Amino acid sequence: MKLPPRSAAGYFARPDTSKAGILIYGADAMRVALKRQQLITALVGPDGESEMRLTRMSGGELRKEPSLIVDAIKAVGFFPGDRAVFVEEATDSAAKPLAAALNDWAPGDAHIVVTAGQLTARSALRKAFEAHPNAYAAGIYDDPPSREEIESTLRQAGLGALDRDVMDLLAGLSRALDPGDFAQTVEKLALYKLGDTSPVTAEDIDACAPLSVEAGVDDLINIVAEGRAAELGPMMRRLEAQGVTAVTLCIQAARHFRGLHSAAADPGGAAQGIGRLRPPVYGPRRDRMLRQAQAWGMYKLESALQDLVQTDLKLRSAAQTSPAMALMERTLIRVAMRARI
User: Fold this and answer.
1) Of 107, 101, 41, which is closest to residue 72 (Cα–Cα)?
2) 66, 67, 156, 322: which could form a disulfide with 97 (CB 3.0–4.6 Å)?
3) pTM greater than the 0.90 cutoff
């Protein structure tokens, strides 16, 4: 049977042990591995492998010796508790032995967990699980995690309910990071808050989020917006060494200053204008942008945007002969100095 995405999150957290098994497939190996890990932990517990209640085999081993899977699901464990057989990197060549194992499965046998890469609708492996009344097939897609999945990840890490703004910030982080990086960030956050009973804040998330080139660009733009021209040089050298181009810096700076200008020009005031920005801005970043918009004012921001637009045109011009990063650095210094006026 097909397991729809809406039901998959609940199944991985609380699997139905009356079913023979499940096929988890998808193009993103990390997403598939995380779901498989969650499911197996729910089936046999954290000590299942050390208690020999988990049997592992590859699709290649099963292709060479088809009887392995039936022998594994029928084997009697030494320790009490549910058992599972995990077949990784399965392909259509393993469809027949797996279909035979599903047909031979009886209550009390080990649960069958199979992972595979991207499978088409005509895949023999998919058909074997989708057509069987006592098994599931779940496709894992590259969609951002749902609120329910994020909450499940938080519960597994031992973190309780979060404030709405903090959850929105975490949801944005989940869309920006790979699934594995996001899971590690949540684990790091749980360790960061170990023994601390105060609510999780946006500052806590910022402290645990992984650093990236994007974060370095944001730091540079904040230096410009806050008029700290003396700090520009070292940051420019660092970003240039990381491969960031002048055009990228110009685009990101212009985007930031357009947001500040929209906030400063709002009839209801900068605070209301910040709230209207899309995508929404939360937490410390919102407070920082509000301070910047109020300090600059609408007219000075228009002048800064004019400088950035002119520099963008020069950088993209075929007649431009000056070094691109030098040109960008001069523009940013000029904009930063304007913040002090």
Assistant:
1) 101
2) 66
3) no
